[in-house]
């Protein structure tokens, strides 16, 4: 996305870090760079406005739910690892042994037919 005009900061960089800007998770100098870009690039400003509206809607509809402290700690830890540039393990959450077993589909077997009532053989005459 770009307005076709050259900018001091490329549109792709702005859009790659848009959520950091929205959440004010970047230094003030970077925020100023974003604000300057939005002032001269209407497509990026439009995308910013859309994402800001979505964020407000989510907060209004879902903002009252309390996040469990252990989940918050795990998420924040993962963010710290990613920001530090370390390799992120594929699965860093403890998994119980039963959860670790792969679930495979059970083969379909023919359903037993309903039992037919059996009649006793007629007594034979001697």
Structural class: mainly alpha
Q: Please provide the ordered H/E string of secondary-structure elements.
A: HHHHHH
In the predicted model, the low-confidence regions spanning at least 5 consecutive residues are 94-117
Helix content: 40-55%
The percent range for strand residues is: under 5%
The number of E-state strands comes to: 0
Mean pLDDT: 76
**Counting H and I runs of at least 4 residues, what is the number of helices?**
6
Radius of gyration: 31 Å
- Let me know the largest β-sheet: none
Give a structural overview.
The structure is a single chain. This protein has six helices and no strands. Helices cover 52% and strands 0% of the residues. The longest helix is centred in the middle third of the chain and has 21 residues, at 42-62. The radius of gyration is 31 Å and the shape is globular. Mean pLDDT is 76; it is low at 94-117. Helix 3 packs across helix 4 (42-62). 6% of the residues are buried. By secondary structure, it is an all-alpha fold.
Question: Features of this protein?
Answer:
globular; 6 helices; 126 residues; mainly alpha; 0% strand; 52% helix
Sequence-ordered SSE layout with sheet pairings:
Layout: H1 11-16, H2 18-22, H3 28-40, H4 42-62, H5 69-84, H6 97-100
Helix pairs in contact: 3-4
What's the gist of this structure?
With 126 residues, this protein is mainly alpha-helical.
């Amino acid at each position: 996305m770009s307005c076709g005009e050259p900018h001091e900061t490329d549109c792709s960089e702005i859009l790659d870090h848009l959520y950091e800007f929205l959440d004010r998770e970047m230094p003030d100098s970077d925020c100023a760079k974003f604000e300057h870009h939005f002032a001269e690039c209407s497509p990026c400003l439009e995308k910013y406005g859309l994402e800001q509206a979505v964020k407000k809607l989510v907060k209004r509809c879902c903002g009252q739910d309390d996040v469990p402290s252990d989940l918050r700690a795990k998420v924040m830890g993962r963010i710290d690892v990613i920001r530090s540039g370390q390799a992120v393990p594929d699965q860093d959450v403890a998994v119980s042994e039963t959860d670790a077993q792969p679930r495979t589909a059970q083969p379909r077997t023919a359903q037993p037919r309903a039992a037919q009532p059996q009649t006793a053989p007629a007594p034979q005459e001697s």
